[in-house]
Amino acid sequence: MNIGLIGTGNMGRILIEAFIESKAVQPANMIVTNRTIEKAYDIQAQHPSVKVAQNAKEVVQHSNIIFLCVKPLDIHPLLIQLKNDLQFAQCIVSITSPISVEQLESVVNCQVARIIPSITNRALAGVSLFTYGESCSRDYQQVLYELFSAISHPVLIDHSITRIASDIVSCGPAFLSFLLQKFVSAAVSETNISKEKAIELASQMVIGMGKLLEKEIFTLPTLQEKVCVKGGVTGEGIKVLEAELGNLFEHVFQQTHAKYYEDIEKVGQQFNI
């Protein structure tokens, strides 16, 4: 089965490299293109068996599954451009959250799915969020599930929780990275520890914490409970976090949802939905 990717930006490239590293897709079965074609050739330079198409139509002509790794407002014009070339035996997969499978199906007559990946998939870890269109056959559902099982933990979601699920899975690494950098900066400013040493310690702490959760040795609540000994230093730190965090994450999600609904409105105007 041939896998096509239209768009080789950050997430498109992550998928390409994860599929190849996991051996879920052989490089020779992959065809890619990008608006700036040099970016596609950069991938081919690292993986010579990957084929480079000069345009999106060429990708469609040689692929069974086509991943649309472009910006939300570029999806509709791309579908209009490709609709006469797509066959029902093919499946397109959008990786962007504001566009629903129903909107995709309103334009094209092929099978469709939406799969929202995460940067963590590059480490063959983390979650990918699945929503299948009504047109998506059991065979394609199985193929896509197996494909992403090689690089992630696939989770089927309802459209109603798309944004919050994406905030946790896709935006979460950036949010937590920001907080950890603040954590490190405070350690450096308040003590004699070097930035390099603080980053090393914080990074290894996160890796270790992830392994505790992965092995189900602790859950998030029990992990906090085990570390936070009554009357100890950790408890004093928790008191500060409880007092000062307030509604921080509520505000984060309010902001991401506001942007999401803005994008949905713009996309809806394109699809006339």
UniProtKB/TrEMBL annotation:
The keyword NADP applies. It catalyses: L-proline + NAD(+) = (S)-1-pyrroline-5-carboxylate + NADH + 2 H(+); L-proline + NADP(+) = (S)-1-pyrroline-5-carboxylate + NADPH + 2 H(+). InterPro entries: 6-PGluconate_DH-like_C_sf (IPR008927), NAD(P)-bd_dom_sf (IPR036291), P5C_Rdtase_cat_N (IPR028939), P5CR-like_CS (IPR053790), P5CR_dimer (IPR029036), Pyrroline-COOH_reductase (IPR000304). It is found in: Cytoplasm. Pfam families: F420_oxidored, P5CR_dimer. HAMAP family: P5C_reductase (MF_01925). Belongs to the pyrroline-5-carboxylate reductase family. This is Pyrroline-5-carboxylate reductase. The gene is comER.
